[in-house]
Design brief:
The structure is a single chain. The protein has 253 residues and is of the alpha/beta class. Helix content is 32%, strand content 26%. It folds into two domains: 115 residues, P-loop containing nucleotide triphosphate hydrolases (Rossmann fold); 76 residues, no CATH class. The protein has eight helices and twelve strands. The strands form three sheets. Strands 8-9-10-5-11-12 form a six-stranded mixed β-sheet. A four-stranded antiparallel β-sheet has the order 4-3-6-7, with helices on one face. Strands 1-2 form a two-stranded antiparallel sheet. Strand 3 and strand 4 form a beta hairpin. Helix 3 crosses helix 4 and helix 4 packs across helix 5. The chain is globular.
Length: 253
């Protein structure tokens, strides 16, 4: 990626970090979304919203090369996802920090071991530097005293903080958060969003958040892509407000 490192994170050139032009999003050969076009620059915050099953998560899976990319342009940094080779995918993913709804922690390993596993799998060798980096990201998410806890000993909010710490390990240029508050109560969810916004403010990564919760958009405004009816288009706050009918804050179709 054409970038420089600042404050432990990566800042990009004037080129967008993420660029899709006329992309078709498919899952197992089925067309989910057609003609998707958007860009995300360094330091930008973008929400992808829509009803469950509208294709939001499939966009994330396309950006991580879990699903094949089709279209005119599908690019993350220097990686052309239409032409990317299998051996390049691990290098692409090192530049991405991914946060999942269900945390995806290794349940039989401590918090520290979860983080060390990621560093080893992404090419780190020096154990002293690895442990220092793990402690550094745990401090960033407010869990400096939890390194030797097992995941089951943590609350849901703490587990998600560990997942965010894991996503920060390799100083990503882009953070992809797929329903990061979906399994959390309202108060804990707000704490997780406050943490993501602090990271966004302090280190300036681009952040793409998938959500169907309108409350998040109200409290933490950003650009919004709405997935509905096989399309995904950028909408204004005024247009987005028209899609809030449900009392629980979910986005209808």
């Amino acid at each position: 990626m054409p970038q420089n490192r600042e404050n432990g994170f990566i800042t990009a050139s004037a080129l967008p970090l993420v660029e899709l032009q006329g992309a078709d999003i498919k899952n197992e050969g089925n067309l989910i979304l057609s003609d998707v076009s958007f860009t995300v620059k360094s330091g930008e915050l973008l929400y992808i919203v829509g009803r469950v099953g509208s294709g939001k998560s499939s966009i994330i899976k396309t950006l991580t090369a879990e699903l094949p990319a089709e279209g005119k342009v599908v690019r993350v940094g220097d990686y052309d996802l239409i032409k990317i080779r299998k051996k390049q995918i691990p290098y692409l993913r090192r530049n991405l920090g991914v946060v999942f709804q269900d945390f995806q922690l290794l349940t039989e390993r401590t918090v520290m071991e979860n983080l060390l596993f990621v560093l080893r799998s992404t090419g780190w060798k020096d154990e002293t530097k690895m442990e220092f980096r793990c402690n550094q990201v745990l401090d960033m998410v407010g869990l400096s005293t939890k390194a030797h806890k097992m995941p089951h000993q943590l609350s849901g909010g703490e587990q998600q903080r560990v997942a965010i710490a894991r996503a920060l390990l390799n100083s990503p240029s882009v953070i992809l958060a797929d329903e990061p508050t979906g399994n959390l109560d309202a108060e804990t969810a707000e704490g997780i969003m406050n943490l993501l916004m602090k990271i966004h403010h302090d280190y300036k990564p681009a952040i793409i958040i998938v959500t169907h919760n309108r409350t998040i958009l109200d409290k933490f405004p950003g650009r919004v892509l709405l997935c509905s009816g096989g399309n995904c288009k950028e909408v204004t706050d005024e247009l987005t407000s028209n899609f809030t009918e449900n009392p629980d804050g979910d986005m209808p179709a």
